[in-house]
Each structure stands twice: as C-alpha cells, then as structure tokens.
Specification:
2 copies of one chain form a homodimer. The first copy, chain A, has 228 residues and is α/β, with parallel strands linked by helices. Chain A is built from 8 helices and 11 strands. In chain A, helix 2 packs parallel to helix 3 and helix 6 packs across helix 8. The first copy, chain A, binds a DNA duplex (30 and 30 nucleotides) through helix 6 and helix 8.
Chain lengths: 228, 228
DNA sequence: TGGAGGGGTTTTCTTTTTGTAACCGCGAGA
DNA sequence: TCTCGCGGTTACAAAAAGAAAACCCCTCCA
C-alpha cells in the first residue's frame, strides 16, 4: 500500500516515513502543498497523510484542491492539539479522519489501517488463500499453520497479491503500489522478490500459490486458476 | 487494440510501449510528427497517444492535420505539467483527452480504457460468447467455467475476435489490430494462431466457436451461424 | 567497528512464446 | 472426379521473458 506523506518539518517527516516503511508501506514524502498536489496527480496513492500546517498552501487548501480534482483517495489530517479547529473536527474539509499531534505512533497506524480498510470496501483483516493465511493486523503470515518470516518488502508484495487473489496483477500495478517513486521500471526487482517469496511461501508445498502469467503479470491462487 | 505512440524521447517511448504491450495492446511507435502522420495514414489505429513536444511538427500540428484528413481516431495528448496550455485544456485542438507528464502508468491505462470504450459504445469488461467468458480486467479466460491459459498474443487475438463476435473478421483486420507494422502479410502466422486458439478453446467441446469463412476471414460464434 | 540483514543490481541461465517454413488435406469449381 | 489453392498442421529456430544466483551497499546495532 502506497502512502503520500505531506509534512514540512524534515525530522518529523523522516521519522514517520521510516516508521511507516517499517510497516511495509511504500511512502513518498512531499514538503509543501504544491508538491503534494503534484505527486497526488502523478501517482495513485492508497492514502494521503496531510499536515495542516504547511508553508504556502495549507492542508485545508490542499485537501480542497484534491477533492476538486476528483480524487477519491482517503485523507488523514494531522493537526496540533492547540490548533484544533471546527473545520477539522467536522471533517467538512473533505478529509476522512484527523489526528492531533503529538500522537502515539501506534495510534497513527490504527487510523491508517482503518482508512485503508474503508478504501477497499472493507476487506477482512485476515486474508486466506488455500492454506496461506495473512494476518494483516499483526503482519503475520502462515502457510499450513506454520509461521513464515517475511521482510517488509516481501510482506508488502505478498499482501498486495493476496488482496487481489485470483486476478492477474500486472507488474506495473505492483510497482505502483508496493514500491515508491524511486522504483526503476527497467530493473528486475519484482522478479527477484517473487522468487524470494516463492522460496519462503511455496517451497516444500505441493500446491504452489504464486504463478507467472508470461507477458501479463502474476497471480496468487491455488492452481493459478486453471489446470495446467 | 492497436495504438500509435508518438514520443520522441527514446527511453520514455520504450518504457511506455513495453508497459502497453504488457497490457496486450499492439503498439507502433513514431518519433516525430511526419512519421506519425505517415503511420496514421497507412494503418487503422484504435488510439493515438501524442506527445506535444516533438521535433519538427509539434503535437498540435499533428493533431490538426490528422483531423483535417478526416481521421476519427481518439487522440490522447501528453504534455509536461509546466507546459499546460489553454489549447490543451480546452481540448480544442481536436484531441479527446490529455494527460500531464510525468504521469502514473495506471492513470494512462485508465484514460486509454476510457477512450477506447467511448469509441465503441461502452464495451463491457466481461465478454461472453456461449460458454466462453473473457474477463478483460483480470485478463482471465474460461470456457465452460474452466480456466484457459493463453499467451499474450493468443489472448489479444481472441479478445479481438470476441469483441466482434458473430462478425466475419478479415485477416487484414486481424493483422492490423493484433499485430503491429512488422507483420509479414505473406506469412501464415494468423492461421498458426487460430490453430493454437482452437486447440486451447475448442478442443474437447462439442460446440466449436472458431469458424473459418473461406476467402473472407474468421468468425467467433456458436455454431458459426450468423446473418449473411 | 564490524558483521548481519534487508534491499537492490547485475549477470547468466532456462523456459516460453513468437515467428518461419515445409508439407498436408480438404473443398469448391472446372 | 480432378485439380488448384486456401487454409490446417506440425516441426523447428529465434527471440523474449522470466528465474536464479551471485554480488554490492547501506544501515543498524552489538
């Protein structure tokens, strides 16, 4: 899941981005309103985290322009406690949720999870495909009851495929939602990660879940959704 | 679906063409305005993607000449964000849509889908012919509920026939829409692919869907019955 | 400060797909 | 019925896509 973080204070931005990446989110950072609008226009984010206090256009204005441009993306507003404003509380700026600073990081994560869930028509917290189970809340994966240790990127990729289980997912989609703007489309990084996932998820199991559709992308499904 | 991509920057062109081909579009590339006009004159494209910034004739001029020549083909303009122009926004250059660079690839795909759909009065995402189902979004094909594995070219050909189910499709049409300009009209490649499709789609089913009309082309229809 | 691990790159190897070509067989018209 | 030609079939070569392996670099932490 890919997030745009709009925060002008560099150290806060760095810290949050780091924490989010640790949670396997792909994060792009914008430090002002215009940059944020530009990024949001270019990429398809799953969530925007928007600090209200920004140089130039403030958070309210950014949110307004986003909505005016037809963007459906969920927006989480951040505001200082002493600057809470009726507009924020009423969420009538077009935002979907807000959080007061300073906040506990786990609290932020909880809000993010809730918004993301809402954004994809309430997908369950635990995704099951055959005997593969992904607990997206605990970020825990098990295959046939046995725990599978995945790195953050591996997890993010698997979760993205799992949420679209049974569909052929184009590599452009993967690049878009699992990696951030620094992804090099000519690298074979996706193949490399698919291979790492196969080793951890499919190796030693007779039913493989990760299938290649040459010229199209990858599918996560038992049997690949057709008899080969 | 056949697309003419007009883009002079080689790496951008290569990247876009690759991504589009991944989505089973047949893509021709032109690197300047005159080349584009020539190609568009010779071939029948379903869509033209036109960068405005071109050496020689620019995108506006190319579009104008295209329209002057009576071309109805949908045109999607690409423009740099900092070069947005009233002419672009007003779409009064004869273009049907525009997109600012750099853009998100999925966004491009969405625009392409929208334009292609607009041109053909709302094509559905799922095409059904008898017990053959093509889910064009998930890129899955099934016959009688059973998944059918098709390569990229096979899929493109079947989709083209399916969209024109019941019609006799001339091999010249097939060559134009499923292959690109490098197609050798003296080869029997189409026959080869029809055969491959028959093996995967019709074999083992009593009602055949792929029928030959000698001297005319092929039809995808149950029983091959159609109004003459 | 050094080593382990995660993320990313590069290179090489393997498999699949695409395209070519030669040959076969059937159907329509003579 | 015979023949010609269109299309079908099959085999194979070339090219592309993907898999695998090895390697690099950076960060974090003991």
């Amino acid at each position: 899941m890919r997030i745009l973080l709009v925060e002008d204070e560099p150290s806060a931005a760095r810290m949050m981005a780091k924490g989010l990446r640790e949670q396997a989110y792909a994060v792009d950072v914008a430090s002002d309103g215009d940059g944020a609008l530009y990024q949001a226009g270019v990429n398809d984010y799953d969530l925007v985290i928007l600090d209200i206090m920004l140089p130039g256009k403030d958070g309210f204005e950014v949110c307004r322009e986003l909505r005016a441009g037809g963007a459906q993306v969920p927006v989480l507003m951040l505001t200082a406690l002493d600057a809470i404003d009726d507009r924020v509380q009423g969420l009538d700026t077009g935002a979907d949720d807000y959080l007061t600073k300073p906040f506990d990081f786990r609290e932020l994560l909880a809000h993010i999870r809730a918004l993301l869930r809402r954004g994809q028509n309430l997908q369950p917290d635990v995704i099951k495909v055959e005997d593969l189970e992904m607990d997206t809340r605990a970020r825990q994966v098990r295959r046939g009851g046995r725990g599978v240790y995945l790195t953050a990127k591996e997890y993010a990729l698997l979760e993205y495929l799992a949420r679209r289980a049974g569909e052929v997912v184009a590599r452009s989609d993967i690049a878009e939602h699992v990696w951030d703007e620094s992804f090099d489309p000519f690298s074979n990084l996706i193949e490399v990660y698919i291979q790492r996932l196969r080793r951890k998820v499919d190796d030693g199991h007779s039913t493989k879940l990760l299938h290649t559709r040459r010229g199209a992308g990858y599918v996560l499904a038992p049997g690949g959704d057709f008899d080969v």
